[in-house]
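B., you asked whether I could sanity-check this one before it goes into the benchmark set. Here's the sequence:
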Amino acid sequence: MYSIGDLSRRTGVKVPTIRYYENIGLFAPVGRTRGNQRRYDLDGLRRLKFIRHARELGLPIEAVRALVALDGHTDVSCDRAHDIAKAHLADIRVRISQLQRLEAELARISALDDHDGGPCMVLEALGDHETCTRPH
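And here's what the prediction gave me:
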């Protein structure tokens, strides 16, 4: 059995985050000691590592919740898990595209030449969205 501190050290998940996961019903201790300390078993350790890794991959809490719920349901779990992963990948690709457009526009703005005694071109560009060369 692991204390919440042990679990935190073994997984790299901070204690307040573990408590948050408990509060939202994503993760639960298997019991408590007489002193009311949370206790976790090996399955809890594995579950928390799973949650941490999914969150590091950027999966939203609701997607992680859905994946956790699939554990032990082999009849539909693989298809549903693939669907969740593919949907997240599609979202990531959209975000990458948006970030690339932002990068191009910021590169253009940061390269603007300032005129002696005139306004700062970066501030002017940021103050007027109409000066952008493409949507972002």
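One thing to flag: The domain at 1-61 is CATH 1.10.1660.10 (Multidrug-efflux Transporter Regulator; Chain: A; Domain 2). Otherwise nothing jumped out at me.
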